[in-house]
Write a structure and sequence with these properties.
Elements: E1 3-15, E2 21-33, E3 37-41, H1 48-56, E4 63-68, E5 78-81, H2 93-97, H3 108-121, H4 137-149, E6 155-159, H5 167-184, E7 187-191, H6 195-201, E8 204-208, E9 215-220, H7 235-248
Parallel strand pairs: 3-7, 3-8, 5-6, 6-7
Antiparallel strand pairs: 1-2, 1-4, 8-9
Helix pairs in contact: 3-4, 6-7
Length: 249
């Protein structure tokens, strides 16, 4: 597969209020292939979310290099989904999804057409005119995913997007994300604390050590790419999640 993005020797050092320093990431190197789903896992505070912000261009104070196949255009090529959907409460689902398309030369009719396409993609066609307060947590996160996809980014970054949801909703949205990936072929990087989520969603799993975050292992997921909930009951899934848990201990 074609390399989409390579992280080479990424190191992040913070200055502390006491005048010292803290190393968050230390010499982190790995590659992301085009159209691949990569999961980043590791203990709390190991720098997973920091690394995601670097890829997004939200944090540029680091050493090392991020080498893209094609340098991303700011505000166009990178979609970001946070743990909290952060929808605008005074805007309908339709207008929340279309927010990123406004002011970019798109006509109102084009914004509406594209927004409705994405609302259908995430299974919310009946709620286009609803407001965030009228939606469940899982539905709000679907809107956030649709909004991140609105301007057709080349890569979708997701920072624990399902972490605040109940188990049933989380499993359902994992399935929805796989369907979206199959239809859009986006490159996806997802930060998660769940080894089950990492194993279920990803092509490869990057395991970071406790702070300072270093690459502990990079695993190719030993499962068929055709996945549904039944795969969670297989011996292969149990063995692989056991390996991941062992590396986090």
């Amino acid at each position: 597969m074609t390399t989409f993005l390579a992280a080479n020797g990424i190191t992040k050092v913070y200055d502390t209020a006491q005048g010292g320093t803290v190393t968050a990431l230390d010499d982190v190197s790995f590659e992301i292939a085009d159209r691949e789903i990569i999961a980043l896992i590791g203990p709390s505070g190991c720098g997973k979310s920091t690394l995601l912000r670097m890829i997004a261009g939200l944090d540029t104070a680091f050493t090392g290099e991020l080498s893209w196949d094609v340098p991303p255009k700011r505000g166009q090529d990178i979609g970001f989904v946070f743990q909290e959907p952060a929808l605008l409460p005074w805007r309908s689902v339709l207008r929340n999804v279309g927010l990123g398309l406004e002011g970019k030369g798109n006509s109102k009719s084009e914004i509406k057409r594209r927004s409705l396409e994405l609302i259908e993609l995430v299974g919310l066609s009946d709620f286009a005119e609803s407001y965030p307060s009228e939606l469940s947590g899982g539905m709000r996160q679907r809107v956030a995913i649709a909004r991140a996809l609105a301007y057709d980014p080349r890569i979708l970054l997701m920072d624990e997007p399902f972490g605040a949801l109940d188990a049933i909703t989380r499993d359902s949205l994992q399935d929805e994300l796989l369907k979206i990936w199959e239809r859009t072929s986006k490159t996806i990087v997802i930060v998660t604390h769940s080894v089950e989520e990492a194993a279920y969603l990803a092509d490869r799993v990057v395991v970071l050590s406790a702070r300072p975050g270093r690459i502990r292992a990079v695993h190719t997921v030993p499962l068929s790419r055709e996945r549904d909930s039944s795969i969670r009951e297989t011996p292969e899934f149990a063995r692989f999640t056991g390996v991941l848990r062992g590396e986090l201990e």
